[in-house]
Design goal:
The chain is an all-alpha fold. It contains five helices and no strands.
Amino acid sequence: MTAVFNGFAWFACLAILGAAQRWLNGNGRFWQLLQRNGFGLYVFHYPLLTLLAYLLVSYFPALGNPALYLILLVAVFPLTIAFTALIRRTPILRTLLLGIKARR
């Protein structure tokens, strides 16, 4: 039975990737922002996710898992974009954390 579930999950992933390529392939300002900051989003999303989850669980222990996941889903993406923008604007951090050389 596990092979059936794994096969279903594999085809579901292929379907999601195909749908994303079909309907989420844009050239607008938002997509350009994501392309320009892709590495920073990749690097910073997990530490921010972990920190926010720790803070939520520590300060709101009665919060249920569905509410926790929903809050994290909604909050982490804009926080990651803002944090990446802040790092990109700080010259020494831009070089140290993202490897972007200073402009001359």
